[in-house]
Amino acid sequence: MLNYKMGKKLFLFIIFVFCLFACGPSLKELPITQKELEAERRKEKELALLTYIQRFERLYRISLPLMVSASPFCDEEERKLICGILVHEKNDYKKEDREIIALHFPLGNIPTILYIHPDFPASKIGLKPGDKILKVNYKKIKNSKDFYKTLLKIDPDKTQIVPFVVERNGKILKLDVPCLKGCYYPLRLIIDDSVNAWVDTRKRINITTGLMRFVNSDEELALVIGHELAHNVLNHLGKKIKNQFVGTMIDTLLYFTAKINTRGVLGRVSNFIYSKEFEKEADYLGTYIVARAGYDVSQATNIWRRIAAEYPKNINRFFLSTHPSTPERFLYIEKTAEEIKKKKELGLPLLPEKRKKNGFNLFAGEYIP
After folding, report:
1. Same domain, 129 and 194
2. Residue 115: beta bridge partners?
3. Same domain, 249 and 142
4. Is the confidence at residue 318, as pLDDT, over 60?
């Protein structure tokens, strides 16, 4: 019986293999040498690396003025000096990528300026891409991470002028670099085809390459970044975690006092309490941040109509959804843009309005007068 079963399985396997190869291509296959294949692979890798760098520079260029414009809204400890300087060194890249990068940018063991924001003072006082960073604020710089850490340690309320020592073409230059105060949050460009952006528990702003391709203009990208920036400024993720903690405590209390096993449902559900409200709040403040940075917010709202065209499910959201529908978001941002326009016409400061509400917010643990 065992041999019969094995023979049957072997027969079925042979039939399966035969079916796989029963139909094949009928036209000739042109020969490709391994050398040609490797040369093309290198070209495509070079294109991918350069495209990523260009996209990150664009993300950096648009994000930094928003961080500066958000300065009045974030907590004091989140306000840092922003100099508008991107640096890199060879250890920032994989070994197989260093040779390609070095063909296009100065690259070595010393942190070197890759990009300077054109609208920041650093670009106007003489710093240039290719300058090697030797010292910042009188401290010797070991690598690119050390460069950013050194800047973040400087108190922007005490000074916004930072002494630099750089090497350019073998010459040592000493420059006092003016920097700006802003709400600093790390930027990450994620290689992913989805049209998405989010903040994480480390308050990093994550943007996908799919979204970078989707946006039609700098104004649209600024609106997305401003929204995520507002999430961080308003500490929405921290509030959601706090809400979840309260719900979990109620789960525990019900179990030990009334022997009711909720299986953690209240903890999970409470994580979504005010989720839609948080999104609307981030749209509201984010639009103000974008306008304060000098962007025309009225030209950016159409991104939500295009998202609706690509993702029709977002047009109708059911009541348990964590995000408002695309029509809600379009209209909400459009009305915010109108409010901003009126304030400009009246010469009023571009500051968001406070919510007027009485009561006790159980999940936030605070009384709203």
Report:
1. no
2. 86
3. no
4. no
Average pLDDT score over residue span 174-179 = 97
Number of structural domains in the chain:
2
The answer to the question of residue 22 being in a domain is: no
- Domain membership flag for residue 12: no
Q: Residue 360: which pLDDT band, with cuts at 50, 70 and 90?
A: very low
Could you tell me if 161 and 218 lie in one domain? no
Question: Would you state the pLDDT for residue 293?
Answer: 97
Assess whether pLDDT exceeds 80 at residue 259. no
pTM for the whole thing? 0.85
Domain final residue pick, 183, 210, 233? 183
* Amino acid 236: pLDDT: 78
- Whole-Å CA distances, 177 to 114, 115, 270: 17, 15, 47
Identify whether residues 201 and 309 lie together within a single domain. yes
Domain holding 57, by residue range, is 42-183
Angular region, 137: left φ>0, alpha ψ -120 to 50, beta rest: left
The string of pLDDT tens digits covering residues 126-143 is: 899 999 999 999 999 999
- The reply to whether 217 and 245 lie within a common domain is yes
